[in-house]
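Open question from group meeting: does this chain pack into something compact, or does most of it stay loose? Before anyone orders reagents, we agreed to write out a predicted structure and look at it together. Recording both the input and the output here so the notebook holds the full record.
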Amino acid sequence: MSATAPLHLAAEIGGPPRYDPGHYIGLARLAERGALDFVTLGDSFLRPGPDALAVLARVAPATRRIGLVPTVTTTHTEPFHVSSAVATLDWVSRGRAGWYVGVSTTGAEARLFGRRPAAPADELWREAGEVADAGARLWDSWEDDAEIRDTATGRFVDRDKLHRIDFEGAFFSVRGPAIVPRPPQGHPVTVVDGTGGPAARVAARHADVVLVRATAPERAAAIRAELRRRAAAHGRDPDALRVLVALTVDLGDIETTPEPGLESGPPLAAGGSYYRGGPVDLAELITRWHRGGAADGFHLTPITPGRDLERIVNGTVALLQHRGLFRTFHPGGTLREHLGLARPANRYARADRYVPERGRA
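Structure tokens returned:
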């Protein structure tokens, strides 16, 4: 990776459940002011609190540029509905949506639905990969100019530009076409935590952004190289993959000396990497790892979002911007543009009639 490659930064805005939309809007606007690529909002069927995708649909009209990426669980849910919900978020945000692929592994979650018992992680991630595949096909099932909306003739769509996808997988089948027109981004951005195991296989094949967990830059670089190799083996352009180091940060005492490297940081319940220190030292760590080719950027999860995100934006990010290492404004209007990712071509459209970009308001 070139030392001059753009640095990408994202942040989690979840925490203890809150039912005031102003809380999430405020955090998203704070991240937007720092020109972060996107914010995530974690979720699961065992987590109390409002649905992450619905919350970010509320945040969308109150923000202008920041990408919005909720966790969407692919276990016990219908792929057709997942695709429709994510496409809808892309429409209401005018092209700023992504989805963080999640799976449900526990018996307690399975009992909430009563459809099937808990399954091994390998099976759940194979199913998640099929959901990602079917979702992309459903997004392509409408060509970009399929809508006519001709009131004089009463024609709403050009049926020749709607496509059945006839997806047959090991876990489900989907006919299509979708009920939501093709999203503004073509495909909303797919995010997968792909440090290792079955999730890494799904990430290499389907993800646009992969989060990895590593306690040293050499380890992060090795994971990134392996993900790029696997992506190329699937016929993908590895340069179209963004690999971000997932780092939980505690900036509660800005005078505290950070843990040396990350090797001595205490492990968290989720098994992630942990940083405790000040905003300046965090900026130094990000700079050193990125310049060394360890990753394309960082996904930061504040221990206390209201406190630590402010210190990330006004401390760490401001310093990176002052040094010319991170942008001061969003380069475009969509999340794909922030990430430097092309808008995917529609697999079903004829080349001689494909419309490459839908106009945005």
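Observations to bring back to the group:
Residues 255-271, 354-361 have pLDDT under 50 and may be disordered.
The CA atoms of residues 247 and 300 lie 5 Å apart.
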